[in-house]
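INFO  loader      accepted 1 record
INFO  loader      residues=273
INFO  predictor   begin
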Amino acid sequence: MIENLYTRFRAYRMENGCVVSYSVDMEFVLIGGRYNDDIAPSIREEMRIAGCDSIDLLHIPSWNRRMCDATELETLLNELQPTDIEIPAYNPTDEKGKACRRVIKEFCENSPISQVIECSYKKVGKEGDTGRGLLLSPTKEYNEAVDNDVVEFFYQGRFKMLSTGFVKSKEVVDEINKKSQLHNPILLLVCGMSESPFISLSFIHRSHPLIIVDMLDNNKYYHRANADLKDYGISSQRADNDDLILVSGIRRDDNIIETPTDASIDGNDYKTE
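INFO  predictor   done
INFO  writer      dumping tokens
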């Protein structure tokens, strides 16, 4: 049952980069292909706390350089050995993005356990539910490369998370806004930029995110205010020196229940660390 799942989220503090993780009942999802001395120890620590020896899913929603670095990605793949690797289906427009795509392809060709999953509009339409999340976009080929970034709704845990990549088009957001799966509130909205079309009153009204993580601003995160910015306002807070960590549920290996705060979403309590 979902109420028994031990769920963790972590946004890692780093300069000029963006990486977050989402783990549910000892299954570990890493979003972003960055892995340097600033964050590698924290990622390994988070995997240990979550009870995970390897990455079950490496999700790379965009070829943006803040999301993916070829040298760091190669180290990440060799050390953490992800089973599944989700990537955008479109060809990167710059050399750094092309290098990242090449590193992933070569790694999977030589790995007995890893597979690459290209998230094209055809896959979104036919096989949108991956078991871990729901692929929401792209639903067609867009002219602007970043509008073909992967948008995925991770729903397995006690709280839900929407990862948006660096999508710029309001058309993409309008299409996603129609999805019935977003009727229920989500806890986390992980966006690629503070001007993201996902941070609009219409989308916030539909999805009711409690926390918005702006991945272009050193993982600055925002808490919804009670009644600011009309009825759906967002007040900003900086996590200047610390990662943002959210925890909810019972850890399966030791049955330790995390002490909840008075905040909850979908009836499930969570706490920050």
